[in-house]
Write a structure and sequence with these properties.
Blueprint (H helix, E strand, L loop, with lengths): L5 E2 L30 E4 L1 H9 L8 E4 L15 E6 L16 H15 L5 E5 L8 H12 L6 E4 L6 H7 L12 E5 L2 E5 L14 H11 L6 E4 L10 H5 L5 H8 L6 E6 L6 E5 L2 E5 L6 E2 L10 E2 L4 E7 L4 E7 L20
Parallel strand pairs: 2-3, 4-5, 5-6, 8-9, 9-10, 10-12
Antiparallel strand pairs: 1-3, 4-15, 7-8, 11-12, 13-14, 15-16
Helix pairs in contact: 2-3, 3-4, 5-7
Length: 347
């Protein structure tokens, strides 16, 4: 099991911003110009470094050899995608159920900037704001602009309002006025869908969006990764099932001819980490950045709980799709495993 890249600096082992040498940026912890290097050390050197933090040189130290993750023999290079969902931003200085959504968004973006700039895309799958107010959309825009991030793709959820979203993010609306988009992901195609429907927390596709989806799927023969807010699947949580995608049969009719090319679907909305398959298509639901929903199969009462913010790290190659739900927490390192390429006792 490989160790995470951890920045070393005068601020200790806390996360700092990744190198922006190409932009002439300076390190966030020491003020020294960043040299833009990534250094690699053996396990023994790593233990020494942990005991004696060095002045920051704007580099990330990673134990082991080589500049890229090892690929299994005979396997093609793996692509990374980040899914972030349900930020539920509220105006600056406000809280949501006692939670600070802005602080959680910043923590996630800092982690993405520090460790996932190699991702092909950062997909935000809806509920950008909690009340669909312009101030919260502008706050999202301003916070995102503070970070160096992978290419950003954003759609809307039931807590959004497409007209207000589009006024702040016109670049994320298609010419037809919907927040859907087709984007390239190397050998794959990404499809970001818009399930927002006026006057309800449930989702649906009108004929315009279904026709758009069918046309995009018919354009080529590449494998497809699909992102949207509402899921067509029912997961046994009664209240959530009531506000799922409502016209799932029409959605299925649009995508069924292309089922063999749809490798995975990614959803938000449920405020839980959920995985499974829908009509034979694998899916993952990301828990999101704010409150989560308790597991209750008996009642329709929605009980929100406070847990760490989550985003998903998605790894894709021609053979596999792997989804890591990743919680942002102040984790304490309790052990350093030896180099995974060398024989050792079982973990």
């Amino acid at each position: 099991m490989g160790l995470p890249a951890i920045p070393i600096g005068r601020c200790g082992f806390r996360a700092v911003k990744r190198c922006r040498a190409a932009q002439g940026a300076r390190s966030s912890c020491s003020g020294d110009p960043c040299r833009g290097r990534t250094l690699h050390h053996s396990a023994q050197q790593w233990r020494l470094l942990r005991k004696a933090p060095q002045p920051c040189v704007g580099a990330l130290f990673r134990p082991g050899d080589g500049l890229r993750p090892l690929q299994p023999s005979g396997q093609d290079e793996t692509m990374k995608i980040i899914q972030l969902t349900d930020p539920h931003l509220v105006p600056n200085g406000s809280l949501l159920r006692g939670i600070d959504p802005q602080a959680r968004l910043r923590a996630c973006l800092a982690e993405i900037e520090a460790h996932h700039l190699d991702a092909q895309a950062l997909v935000v799958s809806g509920d950008v704001t909690d009340l669909a107010d312009r101030a919260s959309y502008e706050l999202f825009r301003d916070v995102v602009d503070e970070f160096s991030l992978p290419p950003l793709y954003v759609t809307v959820g039931n807590h959004d309002r497409r007209s207000v979203f589009g006024a702040v993010f016109p670049q994320h609306l298609a010419p037809d006025g919907y927040a859907h988009k087709r984007f390239d992901l190397g050998d794959h195609v990404g499809l970001l869908l818009d399930t927002w429907t006026m006057g309800t927390h449930a989702g649906a596709f009108d004929r315009v969006r279904l026709d758009w989806l069918s046309a995009r799927l018919a354009e080529g023969h590449q494998p497809v990764l699909m992102f949207m807010h509402h899921a067509p699947v029912r997961v046994g949580l009664k209240r959530l099932d009531h506000i799922a995608l409502q016209n799932e049969d029409e959605f299925w009719e649009a995508i069924a001819p292309f089922k063999s090319r749809i490798r995975h679907m990614f959803f938000g909305h449920m405020h839980r980490n959920v995985a499974g398959s829908w009509r034979g298509v694998p899916f993952t639901v990301a828990a999101g950045l704010t409150h989560q929903v308790m597991l209750d199969f008996q009642t329709e009462i929605v009980r929100h709980v406070e847990v760490e913010p989550y985003f998903s790290v998605i790894l894709v190659n021609s053979r596999d799709v792997v989804v890591h739900p990743h919680a942002i927490r102040d984790a304490k390192i309790i052990d350093i495993a030896p180099d995974a390429t060398r024989p050792s006792r079982a973990l």
